[in-house]
Amino acid sequence: MRTSQACTDRRGQTISAGANARILVIPDWLTHDVATDDVARLKAAEGTVMRILEIDTHGYVWFGTDNLGRWFCLRPEEVEVVA
């Protein structure tokens, strides 16, 4: 895990690698030109809480699993840090 830059969620809370965040929306920009099965899998993550793997140098928040690596990313305003 690494954090390349500091960013904040839609409520202004600091987002950091290792923190948990609620996926508020799976946006169209992410699912555009993605296979139907993969879109369904992504949409199933909407509303769930996942651990943040990293924040890349562009400020995107990455989710996935430690053993499988990065799965998808969202913009900071599309997530909400939870305790």
Secondary structure blueprint with pairings:
Layout: E1 2-3, E2 7-8, E3 14-15, E4 20-23, H1 28-31, H2 36-44, E5 49-55, E6 61-65, E7 69-74, E8 79-82
Parallel strand pairs: 1-5
Antiparallel strand pairs: 2-3, 4-5, 4-8, 5-6, 6-7
Describe this structure in words.
The protein is built from two helices and eight strands, in the order E-E-E-E-H-H-E-E-E-E. The strands form two sheets. Strands 1, 4, 5, 6, 7 and 8 form a six-stranded mixed beta sheet that branches. The longest helix has 9 residues, at 36-44. The protein has one domain (2-82): SH3 type barrels (Roll). Helices cover 16% and strands 39% of the residues. It has helices at residues 28-31, 36-44; strands at residues 2-3, 7-8, 14-15, 20-23, 49-55, 61-65, 69-74, 79-82.
CATH class equals Mainly Beta
Helical stretch tally: 2
Report strand %. Answer: 35-45%
Q: Which word captures the global form?
A: globular
Overall pLDDT level:
89
Distance between the termini: 19 Å
- In helices, the fraction of residues equals 10-25%
Order of helices and strands: EEEEHHEEEE
User: What is the correct CATH architecture?
Assistant: Roll
Q: Return the CATH topology.
A: SH3 type barrels
Structural class: alpha+beta
